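Thread: "does anyone have the structure for this chain?"

Original post by V.I.:
We have the sequence but no experimental structure in hand. Need at least a predicted one for the grant figures.
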Amino acid sequence: MLAIKKFIILLFLLVPLSALGKGVYMTPNEFLAEVFPPSQALMTSLWLNNEIRASAKQILNHAYPGLRIRYWHSSVEGHQRTAWIMNEVGKTRPITIGISIVGGHIERVRILEFRESRGAEVRMAFFTRQFIGLTLHQNGRQLSDNIDGITGATLSVSAVKKAARFALYLHQLVATDKAQTDEQQLIQP
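Reply from O.Q.:
Generated one for you, tokens below.
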């Protein structure tokens, strides 16, 4: 019996603690329930034209794999709120990230699912709360403030930053389109 306990302890010590960080932390529905009051979110698809694809490649450093991206939106006190759920690869595996934006500012970032063997610290509040209130610089490609890295999680940190920049960029597109559509509706008799 003592030998079995020692074996289990040894096995536990050999498994890196970062491997214990893998898992689902929040489902997409739980994330959306956190972002939007019940039954207020509308799901829409943004079809990616050549201009959006070119911008995605600049922001993500790779081509976006889909033809469209789904997002959820509502209007909050005259500001457009959007929520984006996207996957971005850390080192070798995708990290599922939920990002909500109100009025062009990041409202929250949540790691929904982490699949890598290292870097799971990006799911912690001390890291994700750095994104709150950030916007894109006027160049449209960089965050408005620096994000502190995490030792040993460089690629995971980079993945979350790229997803945040891409979500902000997409939010600007859909918020501008919605404002133009609303303006056209107001002008028409």
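V.I.: this helps a lot. The CA atoms of residues 40 and 74 lie 6 Å apart.
O.Q.: and The longest strand covers residues 79-89.
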